[in-house]
Design brief:
The chain has 20 helices and 11 strands. The protein has a single domain, classed as Serine Threonine Protein Phosphatase 5, Tetratricopeptide repeat, CATH 1.25.40.390. Helix 11 packs antiparallel against helix 15.
């Protein structure tokens, strides 16, 4: 479906940008709109926010762009789960010299970090939408829903920016003349804004999931109050606000709409463990299936290799060794493929992520938030407060994985157990491992051991990725991250 707009070239650049963005062809938009179709009207740019249908088109367009660019893209060379997994100790590059090697060798250079520009483009659209919705003269029946989603998205995008790049410019308006001159805000200030936006989203969003027309739906594709709460719990944990992290996670854990399910059912479409999943803009298999499986057979006959199925990434030995014997996550969330022996080479068995294993379209969606993380958040927050109940939350995750419950221990022992559980529970999901290593202050120690195994070296500056040179040239107040060529 194609939206066509007549634009007034005397309008502000921000509004023209939104109008231009809305010319995008929204293929199969029912993924977000639940079978309904927005009308293909021709409207003036000044009417972009005049009714719910058009506001929905703007906000839905943001979700659709998340599928094609930035940290959540369906391309393995941009998806944050695969790139961060390669960058740390989760994944291994199988083919020297391709995109995977850049991340695997910790060799990301200026101009190769596309998330910066992509996320700021998305933030510009979100800020423009917030302003347009708030100043709309039309009657918007679902104004709170659209605004709540926008505040959530702004917080979500900034969560990734601050964790990838450290201090970042805090652009909160759609005035590009201001945004292009912003200095980098301290991380604490960015987190403060993220928390404020998430609280705003909580106040505006309801308990039910809504579709693109603001109607209740069983699909968990658009943020509701629980989605905002889940990210707020995570952000409080990152900000070391242990009581609030515990309180927000408790809200999710006590919500009967969500429950832990068996490991072989966690990533199925509309699993009750899912808090939020990112729908695709057209029927397709889950991104991770294409990255790590793509129809690759369990036995490969030379000269065929995993690359013959366009699979270039496998699990690292470090992650494989982190699993305890009998862990059902290792059984259900990994798979093997063996390249048969030849007269000159022995057989080689590779391990691959298999959280998403169905070749059927829309059988699985990319899970952005799920309940098990909330148990691990609360376990860590409680451990940091020396609460004995911390081990109970940890054991909920362990018992679901078929492992024995751990006894209560001292704080250091318990935190180490939680860190290991996060490693084996959340691997290849949303950059968790990279962010966990940084926020707990152990990334340099861990990567000093990991880097030699990858035949590379690690330097502390690599904990933050480079800012694109073009942005540094355009904004005289923007300073680079150290260590990178400009």
């Amino acid at each position: 479906m194609k939206m066509i707009f007549h634009t007034d070239h005397n309008l502000p650049k921000s509004l023209l940008t939104v109008a231009a963005m809305l010319t995008i062809t929204l293929n199969s938009c029912e993924s977000y709109l639940d079978g309904t179709q927005l009308p293909a009207n021709t409207i003036a740019a000044t009417d972009v926010y005049s009714n719910d249908n058009m506001v929905s088109t703007v906000v839905t367009g943001i979700y659709l762009t998340m599928n094609v660019s930035g940290p959540y893209t369906g391309n393995a060379n941009g998806n944050i789960g695969s790139t961060m997994g390669l960058y740390t100790d989760e994944l291994k590059s199988l083919l020297s010299g391709n995109f995977a090697d850049i991340f695997y060798k910790n060799a990301v250079q200026s101009g190769q970090s596309g998330n910066w520009s992509d996320l700021y483009k998305k933030l510009f659209t979100v800020n423009t939408a917030i302003d347009g919705i708030n100043t709309s003269k039309g009657t918007l029946a679902y104004k709170d829903q659209w605004l709540g989603e926008c505040y959530f998205l702004r917080a979500y995008f900034y969560y990734f920016l601050v964790n990838i790049y450290g201090p970042v410019p805090l652009a909160l308006t759609n005035d590009y003349t201001i945004n292009n001159r912003l200095s980098r805000a301290p991380e604490a200030e960015v987190y403060k804004q993220i928390i404020a936006d998430l609280k705003m989203a909580q106040s505006l969003l309801g308990d039910e999931y809504k579709n693109g027309y603001g109607i209740t739906t069983p699909n968990r594709f658009r943020p509701n109050k629980a989605v905002a709460t889940a990210i707020l719990a995570r952000v409080y944990l990152y900000a070391k606000d242990w009581p609030n992290a515990e309180a927000q996670a408790t809200m999710l854990i006590g919500n009967t709409n969500y429950e832990m399910v068996a490991t072989d059912k966690v990533f199925l479409a509309n699993s009750r463990e899912t808090i939020w999943a990112l729908a695709t803009n057209s029927p397709k298999v889950a991104n991770e299936y294409a990255f790590y499986n793509n129809g690759m057979p369990a036995t490969i006959t030379p000269p065929q290799t995993p690359a013959s199925s366009s699979v270039f990434i496998s699990l690292s030995s470090m992650l494989i060794n982190a699993f305890e014997p009998g862990d059902q996550r290792f059984t259900n969330w990994t798979r093997t493929s063996t390249v048969s022996a030849t007269s000159t080479t022995p057989a080689v068995t590779y391990y691959f992520p298999a959280k998403y294993k169905s070749p059927a379209t829309n059988a699985e969606y990319e899970v952005m938030l799920r309940l098990s993380e909330q148990y691990l958040i609360r376990a860590e927050a409680r451990a940091m407060q020396n609460k004995s109940t911390a081990v109970e939350d940890l054991n909920v995750v362990r018992l679901r994985a078929g492992l024995q419950a751990l006894p209560d221990g001292n704080q250091a022992t318990l935190l180490a157990a939680i860190a290991r559980e996060r490693q084996t529970e959340l691997f290849t999901e949303g950059g968790h491992r990279f962010f966990d290593l940084k926020r707990t202050g152990v990334i340099d120690a861990v990567m000093a051991t990991v880097a030699p195994l990858k035949s590379t070296t690690w330097q502390p500056y690599m904990a933050y990725w480079p800012i694109p040179p073009g942005d540094l040239l355009q904004n005289p107040n923007l300073t680079p991250n150290p260590g990178y060529l400009q």
